[in-house]
Design goal:
The protein has 293 residues and is an alpha/beta fold. It has one domain: 3-Layer(aba) Sandwich (Rossmann fold), CATH 3.40.50.300. It is built from eleven helices and seven strands. The strands form two sheets. A five-stranded parallel beta sheet has the order 2-3-1-4-5, with helices on both faces. A two-stranded antiparallel ribbon has the order 6-7. Strand 6 and strand 7 form a beta hairpin. Helix 4 packs across helix 5 and helix 5 packs parallel to helix 11. The longest helix has 20 residues. The radius of gyration is 19 Å and the shape is globular.
């Protein structure tokens, strides 16, 4: 899809937690002409940007002014010198995407709800299957309503499982949709320097590669926490640390849910959200996989 040479393009990735939005953002943001913003809504919640790798001393975000009269995306394009700005689930900044000189390309990223359930249970074992399943169901319905309101030619739907099955093919496809030149180096996102806001566990591969000893996070109480990567007591902040750091980011696929969820948990999920999951393209009959990726 063609865009004007000097036009700012915001690639807005929309999906639930644990669906691969952080990973896809990092991949697209590793393009030489792109910048990974991350979850921009975290800025509004904390009332300032917080880079997970450099905290308040980030060379990019320390120059960003939240209360500036300048459009935030124009401001970031100016600071970074990048034309393509990659952002995740940033509902509070939708208005800033509307100026006619800013093009928005939206990616609807789905992942099997049973994988989301397993991730939720792993991070918050005190929550019930029904609670997590209902929460995912509400989230997906909200995401669908937002996506349905966008112009049809500005939205591209992807399944996480399809995307990771052939990374070069589908990343190239997304680049073409966004009007961005494909570059093979994008797939090695962990080798690039990033200045990410919010985000998930894919960030740990970046931190590990660059020798980062700790990462900065906003808690649910909007407090700033610096979590050392080697501190196992911070498991609630950096879940499944060992699994992610030992995985090869070139081929990484998380299929642990196929072994972790019991038949009863799968039945509970199916009763609550099975029909919605099937409407996203995931069959209700479980075919257990002997590999975890």
């Amino acid at each position: 899809m063609n865009t004007a040479p000097n036009e700012i393009v915001v690639v807005h990735i929309v999906g639930s937690s644990y669906s691969g939005t952080t990973w896809l953002n990092l991949v697209l943001g590793s393009n030489p002409d792109a910048f990974s913003i991350g979850e921009m809504d975290h800025i509004a919640k904390l009332k300032r940007p917080l880079c997970v790798f450099e905290g308040d001393g980030c060379e990019v975000w320390s120059r960003f002014k939240l209360k500036s009269s300048e459009n935030p995306f124009e401001q970031l394009a100016r600071i970074t010198g990048k034309r393509y700005l990659i952002v995740n689930n940033s509902r509070r900044f939708l208005k800033a995407m509307r100026p006619p000189h800013i093009t928005v390309r939206t990616i609807g990223l789905w992942r099997d709800g049973r994988a989301i359930l397993a991730s939720g249970l792993r991070k918050r074992p005190y929550q019930s299957v029904a609670y997590i399943s209902k929460s995912w169901k509400r989230t997906i319905r909200k995401k669908r309503r937002h996506l349905d309101r966008q112009p049809a030619d500005s939205v591209k739907y992807m399944h996480y499982e399809t995307l990771v099955s052939d990374r070069p093919r589908y990343v190239r496809e997304i680049c073409e949709f966004a009007g961005m030149a494909y570059d093979e180096s994008m797939l090695e996102y962990w080798l690039q320097q990033h200045h990410f806001i919010g985000g998930g566990t894919a960030l740990q591969a970046v931190a590990h590669q660059h020798g980062v000893k700790s990462m900065w996070y906003r808690t649910h109480e909007n407090e700033v926490v610096e979590a050392p990567l080697a501190d196992t007591k911070k498991e609630s902040i950096l879940p499944s640390r060992e699994f992610y750091l030992k995985s090869d980011p070139k081929t990484f696929v998380d299929k642990r849910w196929m072994q972790e969820l019991t038949d009863e948990q799968l039945s509970q999920f199916d009763r609550v959200a099975g029909r919605l999951n099937e409407s996203l393209g995931y069959p209700p009959v479980l075919q257990r996989d002997s590999s975890v990726g």
